[in-house]
Design brief:
heterodimer, A: 275 residues, mainly alpha, two-stranded antiparallel ribbon, 12 helices, 2 strands, B: 288 residues, alpha/beta, Rossmann fold, 2 domains, 6-stranded mixed β-sheet, 4-stranded antiparallel β-sheet, 13 strands, 33% helix
């Protein structure tokens, strides 16, 4: 346990000094600032006003940016550490492989989730200072969704890093996986439906395996209980899960997927050559 | 102490260690030499439990891979190339001390002897330090731990002569430890070891005692005479800690015993201006 805690703290300390973290934190900080600058908190769209409207936009942007950032920075730094000889030295110290791997996982999770969360919290606080009502339920739900999404892609990043032997290979794989998720968000699924090559149930099933799609549905269901924005597939989803069931699924699925991928990564890491 | 039998390591179709057998006893200070690709680094990584392998490797009766924390509690390692860690020096020392359950002050004490000023560098990122400073920190962490075995890959490569002298002094105080010192060239490490093992294509091709057992902490008194003063020579001898007379013709000082071949190698660059070289054991010189 001591090794795990020390390693988590060390990874946080190491990440906070990395350039990627600075860029990552700046991006999410800048998004919030820009949303305020462009007066989004004062706009009104489809009944959303003030901070609610702003949070919806923020979470949509986070979904587009965070996964690829988490994937790329995770694989780059983990595979890079191996190539640069950091693993060779640090793993010559008597730290268990589980403490090292999971300590880094938890440390990295804190580092990638905090800027996204803090930026959102900062927006809410700023809005509150300006007299807007803070939608606490929406804020808590979005925080939870962002947490599980970052956790899921972090697990993916750790698995890719454990498998790929070079940084280039790891980065290419990460980018490819993100693109596949992105394409299956709409384009490919719509194509399949239009060409009638797949049953609607299968298409919805594929969509429900995509953590980005699950995140989007989860974010939507709060203000669109019937998932009208999803179109006819909402019937299938709500028939299958119900509203509360789908909310539970949108939290549990990314959590379980991220855990499973990270665990497979750990087993691979433990069995292979470390440096 | 360390027993290796039939150690084999392949990377794809390439065999890097080929049924290697080797035994090291307590107190053996072994120079592990060989050309690039001979298998030195791979052997070290197997001993550190960082590589999977076929065959038997036992360090104090334990297998490095399956019982790695138990094995690594008794091994200190100094890599050839310092890792590009971004964390500050204090954080690294704190982490190493906690993970190794070793007193951080002992590591700092070794570092201070090597010439490090922790007040100045403590908050600086490790990766921003000079090559010599990084090497000293890694040596401080390794030699400040109460371990039975030291594994060092070219440990003095980035050290200046004065720091090397302190390094040899500290080695001289720790002669009860088993040491493996890896190097491309025997003359770099011959003064520190009492055994030499040469690897070639993953096999032991030479395993011999070094009869010229020198005390790593020994000092040699040097007296050099020049035909004429030379600024480049003066700079180099200054780095070695030698002093001169007002004219820069007569040079005197002490060098570390294990550094004698390296020192002679340095002198060959100035053979044209050297008139006299006298090197003697400092204790003999004092007795005269």
């Amino acid at each position: 346990m001591k090794g795990f805690l020390h390693t988590a703290r060390l990874d946080i300390s190491e990440s906070l000094r990395a350039r990627w973290f600075l860029l990552y934190a700046l991006i999410f900080g800048a998004i919030v600032v820009l949303l305020f600058v462009f007066g989004l908190s004062e706009s009104r769209v489809r009944g959303f006003t003030g901070l609610s409207r702003m949070l919806v936009t923020y979470i949509q942007l986070s979904m587009a940016i965070m996964p690829v950032f988490v994937l790329m920075t995770t694989v780059r730094s983990l595979a890079g550490d191996r190539e640069a000889g950091i693993n060779e030295y640090m793993l010559s110290l008597p730290v268990s492989l589980s403490a090292w791997y999971w300590g880094r996982f938890v440390g990295r999770f804190v580092v990638i989730f905090l800027p996204v969360f803090v930026a959102m919290l900062g927006a809410a606080l700023w809005g509150a200072l300006k007299g807007a009502a803070v939608p606490m339920g929406q804020l808590a739900w979005y925080s939870l969704l962002l947490m599980v999404l970052s956790y899921c892609f972090l697990g993916m990043g750790f698995l890719i890093s454990a498998i790929a032997r070079t940084t280039e290979m790891a980065q290419s794989a990460a980018l490819l996986i993100w693109l596949v998720f992105l394409l299956f968000l709409d384009l490919i699924l719509l194509g399949l439906l239009i060409r009638g090559q797949a049953a609607p149930g299968l298409v919805v099933g594929i969509a429900l395996l995509n953590p980005l799609e699950v995140f989007r549905g989860g974010a939507m269901i709060l203000f669109d209980p019937q998932l009208l924005m999803l179109g006819p597939s909402a019937y299938l989803i709500l028939d299958l899960f119900g509203r509360v069931g789908f909310m539970a699924y949108s939290v549990l699925y990314p959590l379980l997927l991220g855990s499973a991928l990270a665990l497979i990564g750990f087993l691979k890491f433990r069995r292979g050559d470390l440096p | 102490m360390i027993r290796i039998e039939g150690l084999r390591k392949n990377f794809g179709k390439t065999t890097v260690l080929d049924a290697l057998d080797l035994s090291l006893n307590a107190g053996d200070r072994t120079a592990l030499i060989g050309a690039n690709g001979a298998g030195k680094t791979t052997l070290i990584r197997c001993l550190l439990g960082e590589y999977t392998y076929q065959g038997t490797v036992l360090v104090n009766g334990a297998a490095p891979r399956s019982q790695r924390t138990a094995v690594l509690r008794d091994i200190s390692f100094v890599p050839q190339l310092p890792p590009p860690l971004k964390m500050p020096v204090d954080v690294l020392l704190h982490y190493a001390a906690n993970i190794c359950a070793a007193p951080e002050n002992d590591m700092r004490r070794v570092g201070t002897r090597l010439g490090l000023d922790f007040d100045e560098i403590g908050n600086r990122p490790f990766s921003k330090l000079s090559g010599g400073q990084k090497q000293k920190i890694l040596i401080a962490i390794a030699m400040g731990r109460p371990v039975k075995t030291l594994i060092m890959d070219e440990p003095t490569a980035n050290l200046d002569p004065r720091a090397r002298q302190v390094f040899f002094d500290i080695m001289g105080e720790q002669l009860d430890r088993t040491m493996i010192i890896s190097s491309h060239r025997l003359e770099e490490v011959t003064g520190m070891v009492n055994r030499v093992v040469e690897l070639d294509h993953g096999k032991v091709v030479l395993d011999d005692k070094v009869e010229d057992v020198a005390d790593p902490a020994a000092r040699l008194r040097c007296h050099l005479g020049l035909k004429k003063a030379d600024p480049a020579f003066a700079r180099t001898m200054g780095e070695w800690g030698l002093d001169t007379d007002a004219q820069g013709i007569d040079w005197r000082g002490e060098i570390a015993g294990p550094d004698r071949l390296r020192f002679l190698g340095t002198l060959t660059r100035y053979a044209g201006i050297l008139r006299r070289i006298h090197i003697d054991d400092a204790r003999n010189a004092e007795g005269k």
